[in-house]
Amino acid sequence: MTLSLPFALLCLSRLAFGALPEVGGGSDPAVRIEVPTAPVHEGEAIGFVVVEGVDGAIAVDACSPIEVEQESGGKWLSRAVTECERGMPASAIDGKLTIAVRAPGIGTYRAVLAWGTGCAPGYPLATATCQRLGTAVSAPVTVTAPPAK
User: Fold this and answer.
1) Domains in the chain, please, with CATH?
2) Rounded distance, CA 16 to CA 54, Å?
3) Dist. CA 146–CA 29, nearest whole Å
4) Per-residue model confidence as pLDDT tens digits over 34-54
C-alpha cells in the first residue's frame, strides 16, 4: 500500500509542528478550503472548494489532492481511500478548484490539503523542491442521514 502525498506531508507536519488546527483555515491563510453551507446527507458528494490566494498557481498532489479525515473521539483520523501510483507529477491549481468527495457515512469530516509554490515542474509534490510549502484545513462538515421519504 502506498501512502498518498497529502497524508505523508500531514504526518511530517504533525511531527514537526504538532497537531493541526481543529478549525478551518489551516496553517497558512494564503490557501483555504471552503465547505458547503447546505446540509450534506449520507451518500451525497461533499464539494470541497480549494481557493488559492497566492501569486500564481499552487502545486498539489496529482492523484489525491485532499485527504479526508473523520472526527472520532475528539481526534481526526484519515479516511484515505485512494491508492496512488508513485512518482506522479504534481498538478497545478490557479484560482479555484472544486473537489467532490462522496460522503463516507454519517459523521463529521474535514479536508486537508498539502500544497507548494515555486515547485520544480515534472516532480511529485514531495520531491519538487518547492520554495514554499503549506497545509490548508477545512472547517468541519457534518454528514447526516437522508431525510425520510
Assistant:
1) 5-144 (2.20.130.20)
2) 24
3) 34
4) 999 888 999 899 999 999 988
